[in-house]
């Protein structure tokens, strides 16, 4: 559905406010010399004062380079940038994606059944959204009940892969039954254009028992189209197709009726471009609105793989968790608002301390792909060099986000974080309740997370110099009570809102991705036989690849 979205509010960019200059002075005077180790030692109330609570998640900010003066100024900055107006604009469905004149209205997808906005256009969008949701959730239940299907393969990339993949992995414990006994579905994700991604999966699959979910907002993304075509060819060949192997020969109008029906049974699509999906041969299509951005789409029919894996009730619980975070974000004063405080910390570290990266360390096997998901969410949204008015930005924007599940990261890159010369803020994510392991295993895992945070702050100065760790290094700890649908929903919504807030402060349109488009355009050109750009290394490399 396309809605006539109102224009976004014109809010000041952070570096154009008077508070920015006050922050610069504060940084010069004292902010840059802040000693978190000293702050923790001298202030017994620091942890309690700096702890924040949001639905399903608690956050310890006390190990950050923040004092009251800094926090006060950062909160002033948020007000000076009219952040509350931006938050309202997000919820009102304003056209925040200015280059594409679209709203970024993913919050609407998680509104509970009984929610009425009181605004006719919003209620109409809600009604359409609910009908679409009902349809794909019903289908998910049908698939779950269909013993003839053992495997489901989601083919998509970027937001049409990472969001659902992270959630399915995180909620593995909620995927009922053993698929080998016909009690649940194995859910696979294929994204890479490299044929080995799909090829290796297909080796394990039975074409008569596999359902393909084609996840693509545009239904034009090269990786997804190529993989979908390869999957269609595989299904056709397995069912006796001896015709030509090229994709054009597999279009529905070229297939005999039984094979056309076969493709319609084996492939469904979640897309905003139903026409292209139909042309491919899909008949079961779950649409979603153009105001759902790719990296914010797991709440829409793009989340079908999640609903098949864990069931529609758990999918609704995921939405409810995200909605609870939406309410926190919309209604909590900025100083206690978790997404806002995380985004302000990003501004403080990136723009004042010059810290170029942030490490994500989920101490949870279920959340091991979260760093990859956040890379797209944060870097595709806020990795921009000009503001929404088209002006080049004189300030840094999104940090490089990276990471790995703890404790694996401890035995890989934590050495550099402890003793290397550059400072890398770490975001620990821990889950209080254990999963499948024993109590002892879980206690050891949590002890390691806390120990890392402590080691970063306290450091070490005894022993020979090579054992010294400077300490004083910043970290934040996010604590989930348990890894369940509601808290996973809340966690992802938290990151979405944090990304949005940082983007608004930097004056960025967080909802487009023109840099990615350039690469796509050039790849198409080269594939069609066009020469790579003149004068560079491009031609030489192409010669090697021929
Ligand atoms: O869902 P689509 O249209 O296939 O797009 C996939 C992904 O490609 C991008 O457009 C660019 O990476 C993402 O924003 C999006 O999530």
UniProtKB/TrEMBL annotation:
Gene3D superfamilies found in the cross-reference section: 1.10.1390.10, Glucose-6-phosphate isomerase like protein, domain 1
GO biological process: gluconeogenesis; glucose 6-phosphate metabolic process; glycolytic process
GO CC list: cytosol
Protein location: Cytoplasm
Superkingdom of the source species: Bacteria
Catalytic residues as annotated in Swiss-Prot or TrEMBL: 380, 411, 520
Keyword Cytoplasm carried by entry: yes
Keywords: Cytoplasm, Gluconeogenesis, Glycolysis, Isomerase
Listed pathway(s): Carbohydrate biosynthesis; gluconeogenesis; Carbohydrate degradation; glycolysis; D-glyceraldehyde 3-phosphate and glycerone phosphate from D-glucose: step 2/4
Enzyme class: isomerase
EC number: 5.3.1.9
UniProt-listed Pfam families: PGI
Transmembrane segments: none
GO molecular function annotations of the record: carbohydrate derivative binding; glucose-6-phosphate isomerase activity; monosaccharide binding
Reaction catalysis annotation: alpha-D-glucose 6-phosphate = beta-D-fructose 6-phosphate
Function: Catalyzes the reversible isomerization of glucose-6-phosphate to fructose-6-phosphate.
Family as reported in the entry's similarity comment: Belongs to the GPI family.
PANTHER family, per the entry: GLUCOSE-6-PHOSPHATE ISOMERASE
NCBIfam families attached to this UniProt entry: PRK00179.1 (NF001211)
Protein name stated in the entry: Glucose-6-phosphate isomerase
Originating species: Allofranklinella schreckenbergeri
Encoding gene, per UniProt annotation: pgi
